[in-house]
């Protein structure tokens, strides 16, 4: 199994572990908050964060970058997702490059921000996401400020 596939499988296993009881698709969807954080020329950024996390248990937020029609991701640009966790939260890898992405294609990239919260309560994360989207004739570097919250029980 290639390393990218193995990491992707691990992320989804960790995510599935946070949903320990059998449930309907609707109930599962209610546990994950998806929010479009960035919607600009040539791209969208979506954050898929679990809404309920157990203290001292592994969890993951997935940040998805999508190029819009006519655009593609610039894989040569020094892409960087730089996460600042709140107090009481440990992030496995706070600074991720395109090489760390769970999936990176011509028009799509996803990053798993794996974390564990040591204390209960609402946790507010922030991040700076630097990337570039291009057309056949132009390339547009972007810098997006991201934010999301997770409720730790």
In the predicted model, the low-confidence regions spanning at least 5 consecutive residues are: 1-32
Number of continuous helical runs? 2
- Name the overall outline: elongated
**Measured on Cα atoms, how large is the radius of gyration?**
16 Å
* Mean model confidence by pLDDT: 83
For the sheet with most strands, the description reads:
6 strands, antiparallel
Strand element count: 12
Beta-strand content: over 45%
Order of helices and strands: HHEEEEEEEEEEEE
Query: How many angstroms does the end-to-end distance come to?
Result: 35 Å
Query: Given the helix and strand composition, which structural class is it?
Result: mainly beta
What percent of the residues sit in helical stretches (DSSP H or I)?
10-25%
Any overview of this molecule?
A hairpin with a 3-residue loop joins strand 9 and strand 10. Strands 1, 2, 4, 7, 9 and 10 form a six-stranded antiparallel β-sheet that branches. Strands 3, 5, 6, 8, 11 and 12 form a six-stranded mixed β-sheet that branches. The N terminus is likely disordered. The chain is built from two helices and twelve strands; from the N terminus they run H-H-E-E-E-E-E-E-E-E-E-E-E-E. 14% of the residues lie in helices and 54% in strands. The protein has 153 residues and is mainly beta. The longest helix is centred in the first third of the chain and has 15 residues.
Task: Offer a quick outline of the entry.
By secondary structure, the protein is mostly beta strands. The protein has helices spanning 3-17, 25-31; strands at residues 32-40, 43-50, 52-53, 58-67, 72-73, 80-84, 89-91, 95-97, 103-104, 108-117, 121-134, 139-152.
